[in-house]
Amino acid sequence: MEDHNQWHDPLLLTDVSRQQQIFSHDISSTYPNFQTLEMRNSEDVYVINPDSQPLEDKVSQGIKELRFVADFKFWAGIVGRSMLGFSLTSPDLVVCTGSPDIPKPTSAEKEMESSVVLSLEEGINGVEVEASRDSHESSKFSSFWHTLEETDGSKVTGDLKKLQEERDYLKKELLEAKKAIVQLKRENEVKSNECMRKSMHVGSLACAVEGQVKEKSKWLSSLSSLKRNLKLDQIKLSEEALKYKNCLEEMDDLKSIIQVSDLFLTNAGLLIVTQQVSDHDELKRKISDGEKQRKELYNKVLELKGNIRVFCRCRPLNTEEIASGARVAVDFESAKDGELAIRSNTHPRKTFKFDAVFSPQADQADVFEDTVPFATSVLDGYNVCIFAYGQTGTGKTFTMEGTHEFRGVNYRTLAELFQIISERQKLFRYEIRVSVLEVYNEQIRDLLASGTQPNVASKRLEIKQSSEGVLHVPGLVEAHVSNISEVWEVLQTGSNARAVGATNANEHSSRIHCVMVKGENLLNGECIRSKLWLVDLAGSERIAKTEAQGERLKEAQNINRSLSALGDVISALANKSSHVPFRNSKLTHLLQDSLGGDSKALMFVQISPNENDLSETICSLNFASRVKGVELGPAKKQLDNTEFLRYKQLVEKTKQEAKLKDVQIKKMEESIHNLETKVKEKDQKNKNLQEKMKELEAQLLLERKLARQHVDTKIAEQQQQHQMRQQFEDQNSDPVRPPLVAKALKNFNDLSSNTQNLPQLSDQNDHKTPLCFLEKENNPEIGELPPPPKKTGRASLCPTAQRIPIASNPRRNSLIPLPSTPMTTVHSPLVKLPLQPSLEQNKEERTR
Ligand SMILES: Nc1ncnc2c1ncn2[C@@H]1O[C@H](COP(=O)(O)OP(=O)(O)OP(=O)(O)O)[C@@H](O)[C@H]1O
Q1: Residues 436-489: pLDDT tens digits?
Q2: How many domains does the chain have?
Q3: CATH number at residue 625
Q4: Which atom of ligand 1 is nearest to the CA of 398?
Q5: The domain boundary residue, chosen from 595, 611, 632
Q6: ipTM score of the complex?
Q7: DSSP secondary structure string, 613-643?
Q8: Strands 356-358 and 308-314
Q9: Using CA positions, which residue lies closest to atom 28 of ligand 1?
Q10: Which residue puts its alpha carbon closest to atom 25 of ligand 1?
Q11: Residue 214 falls within a domain, yes or no?
């Protein structure tokens, strides 16, 4: 049961009527004649249904006066001291009941209690008592009416006429207002529906925007996560790129080194190849020449039956011999064939055959011509021994050393060596050292040492054999010579030294020039070390002939021993004896490695043509003939194994280093390959991430575009709504019509004032009360003011007589920042929407 004393805002009734619901309010307790008040919306008929019966029943019962116009109603009931009425300007229903300022009806008044129905169509028909009322009620009402008529019948009739006229006028206005209101209501409903629809649409849009915002935030978070991961990957990639860069730099360095090495090797190789090509051609030529020479040598070797050759040279008769009339005992008729014959009256003819026979007419060049091949053999690495054997004064020194005008074999051989060296300088590198010594009385004397230090006694030199089997004389001065001039100086130094010491003691010593040759083959790195012994033996005089005594005898004996030892060595070699007595004398000991089977030897047998020297000549020729029969066998090339081993070790070391370098390069290449693979993978990963980022950005852009489109559409709709609402408000504010209710109520007040005798009209209807209606109708803000419910005692006929706002979707707070300008326009229509119930209730509570 509702509290009837509760004040109800008429506007709420208006809102309630908009809900198109049927409201019922039981007022039977207060107003027994009106059990129920039913009210429908403006399209329906507002019915006072006291018995809670259907309207048709009421109509059938003749309650026509309760039914006003078909589509609009104005009803006012005066029940006792209460009043019930409607506003004419709107379907708002105002029920005034239980107002504390209205005194309760007295018993007499209660007896007169009745209903007054005001109808704009039919006027106040309150005189007609409802048919449905019982007779008691009807009688009371008619008695009341009759009482009125009796009291002031004429005046009331006049007023009634005025009221009827006023009613007609009001009826017309009412019809027009009704039409306008109906139209406005329809428009209002249409717009409300539209507003509702758009609000819902806006809500759905907001929901979609919120979803999109959520989706966007989700994508943004995933994007930030991806960016973070990408940043980490980029950092890792940067570190790996730095490592890769360092590796690349190292690789570049290695590459440059390799390229330089390759270039160097290539250039060196090209140079070598070019040089080899040129050398090859030259070698071809030389090889052909060499082959030719070798053929000749081979033939000669064959003739010599070995590598020892014997040349016989006979000096010319000197001036003294010619003066003394000495006869020539040597026949050189077959000298070209290497034969000579002894012709003497005292000796039978004897022929000797040697490798070459040089008559006294042969000059130094002729002699040396056949010696050149030995010089070549020395530079080829063979040990060569060229010695002159013969009687004193037969020209040994002349043949070996010669004079300034007539250079001997020594000088010419050395000259030939340098000549060949210069010819071979592109293929070989040689080093020539020369030592000069003499052997006297089985003592070795260094002529270069004594020559440089003449006052210093020459130290005793011994022959030693190295671990490699090479004989050498420790402490022997070895003069390095690089050209023939230096050779000449050295030879002169030795000669001078020998001349300084030339006494009877050593006049007939053996003078030895040792030329040590070190050579290196530039093509194959082959090194050689060879010796050329140039020996000017002491004279081989017969002791008996010289009649020497004392020291001379001793000298002669030593010379003979030396020569005898040489003869023994040669004999042993000739006989291929297992033991060769090289150490029987200093001379043979020194010449050991040059008289062996792997050496080449050339002996000049110097003879005198004088018949007086015939026996000596024959001895020398016999000795030479014995030497000639010696077969030294194939010469052996003297290789320098030390250098060879050293170079071999160097080559091995270089090969190992090259292998290590190759392994390092391989490792570097593998690491570079791995790094390149890693970088490729990282690049691919980065590319994929970038593509993913692009896709996400594109998706985000699309989402933003859609959201923007939604927002724009919403804004446009809201602007449209705002414009429509503004138009509607403008239309509502345009007509300035006098408030119908005011007029009506004014008339009604007039009526009340005119009927002051009617206490319920004059007392209960204060003049201020209609003004309130007027003000509220014309000024909606008044409805918002806090009314004094207890003071006014107003009650709504509607059981839910309170403002029920249009149910709207809860506002959604969009995360998308809306544009500033549309924001105001967007919110403007929303502001006019009804507040939420809770807010409204709070507001009401606060105002209370
Ligand atoms: N083929 C020759 N043509 C011209 N003169 C010669 C020839 N051989 C030797 N003589 C001369 O004979 C002389 C003696 O020669 P040489 O001194 O060379 O003999 P030797 O055998 O060396 O004597 P020794 O054994 O004493 O040294 C020198 O004056 C030299 O000029």
Answers
A1: 888 877 888 888 876 555 555 556 788 888 777 778 888 888 889 988 888 888
A2: 2
A3: 3.40.850.10
A4: 18
A5: 632
A6: 0.97
A7: GHHHHHHHHHHHHHHHT----S----B-HHH
A8: parallel
A9: 395
A10: 392
A11: no
